[in-house]
Amino acid sequence: PLSYPANFITQKLDGRLDPASPVITRFPPEPNGCLHLGHSKALFFNSWLATLHPGSHWRMRLDDTNPLKESPAHAASILEDVDWLTGSSTGGPTGSSFLSPVTYTSDYFEEIYAAAEELTARGLAYVDFSSPEELKKSRGTLTSPGVPSSYRSTAGTPEGVADNLGHLAKMRAGTYPDGHCVLRARINLASPNLNLRDPVLYRIRHSSHPRTGDKYPIYPMYDFSHPISDSLERVTNSLCTLEFEDHRPLYDWVLQNLQSPEASASSPLAGYPTPEQTEFSRLNLAYTVMSKRKLAQLVEQGVVAGWDDPRLPTLSGLRRRGYTPGSLRLLCERCGVSKSDSVTDIADLENAAREDLDKSARRAFFVEEPLAVKVVGGGGGGAVEAPGHPKDPSFGSRTLPVSDSLFIARGDFVDGTKESGALPKGYKRLALDQPVRLRHLGIATVASVERDGGGEPVSVSVTLDKSEDAKAPGAIHWCDAATSVPCEVRQYDRLFKAESPGKETGEFLDDLNPDSVVLTAGRLEASAALACVSHLGSDAKYPSDLRFQFERMGYYVMDDDATPEKLVFNRVVTLRDTWGK
Ligand code: ATP
Ligand code: MG
Ligand code: MG
Fold first, then answer.
1. Going by CA atoms, what residue is nearest to atom 7 of ligand 1?
2. Smaller CB count within 10 Å for the chain: N or C?
3. Any idea which fold 368-480 has?
4. How many CB atoms lie within 10 A of CB 91?
5. What does CATH list as the number for 485-574?
6. 238 CA distance to ligand 3 centroid (A)?
7. 296 alpha carbon, distance to own chain's centre
8. What ipTM goes with this model?
């Protein structure tokens, strides 16, 4: 289960009148793009809070109030990502699944409209026919107060109320074209907080909605629909990121006016609780971008292959890259929750992945840039057993077939002698006069080398000593030529060269790292390849559910592009932190 250190929000909960009363939170993404790592911070924290007090839960709500920017496809991808991250359908890592069913802000359009009527009837909202430019001007600037439009002055009079109710009804009936008028709250045009200068509550958009169709030609603004939806869902604590701090007075204004003693008995929030908004800092990750807008730009301009490109910090990208829900959870717990903005290092994300994968990834031999090795003088047949995991016997063992033809990585052989000083300092692997241990198999000593016309080694003949007391300075991995399977491996680097893309250049796209992916070919041991093929043939949801440690190299995951005929892997992370080295 999740665990966070105490923080300003848990302190607030402990300080309640009844500190044991249930806490109801919600996670309310807008279906206008894919979820990213930042969202996992909000999701994990909201779901964790709902585990602390008996009777608590968290709700999954799609905030679908702008059909022009939103799509059912994004909604579906969000729900898929949430399911993956929380294991809601598979008993995954949060230990806290949301209270089904999923809700939509559009479920409450009728109540939200009734709230608009309620405020209008009390002179607290009015329909303004000013042009968008006039509207903007009427709200003033940081240094000058707003100027009331002629529509404001009559809002509080009985005739004004009747007029405004009539206009509101016409807005809803579709009488007016897009942008013809808006419904504004009547608050305070001189407020130092610009959000309180008669903000727009409803605007006209003759646009079909995926769930409500053409029923409503008007759509509520976030600041209006959000407090209403929270209250209707009996949310106690509405958590959001710091940029909404300035919006809190408006959140409270809406609730207060819909729940005050003056509110009519038919106020949609009569009898509902008053949620409290609290803001915490966003999660930012170095060397990448996290806003949906910038992510969309990368996808639309073809800089990356799609929303699930393994280099992106989208949840689908992270999943495809091989990050586990558990590793993202670990990262979010370690980042904690506070009021101060910070940037998380990629190293922290990678360390969380290493920690999780060290326990959960089975071991395998993958030979990169294979160099042929011929075993001469006998000892090359049969098979050896190797553990599936060095520390966890539950992984069982794997069989490594052995023939006279093997492969080792080209990088594990130096075509020179120690004697002549040709070996790099501290080099412990195979050389002409230096034996090496082929892990689980025996000690290989070079007998001869075959070279091509350019003098490049094409194959090395070795003798194999399997005796207990045979020794060599180092050990390497290898695979059998006859049974190993050729496959592709994609090694990723950060997507941007700059820690904060665009900070210096003004354009984040100028900071792209041109070498963010390198493809290599190699050979994978038979038992791992077999596991991959059977995973592909199973009803497992994602190829990326199958992760390995390719020994001495790093953690790898099967990519979505893999087929039984051609296996493809992504490198999740190297074995050690290599940042800055
Ligand atoms: P973006 O700016 O990337 O589009 P958003 O804030 O508009 O993100 P929503 O879909 O409205 O995204 O967010 C759903 C929830 O996730 C909100 O409560 C929001 O505060 C939270 N959230 C979004 N981004 C982050 C982040 N980087 N760190 C923490 N929480 C986040
Ligand atoms: Mg948003
Ligand atoms: Mg947004």
1. 30
2. C
3. Ribosomal Protein L25; Chain P (2.40.240)
4. 10
5. 2.40.240.10
6. 17
7. 14
8. 0.96
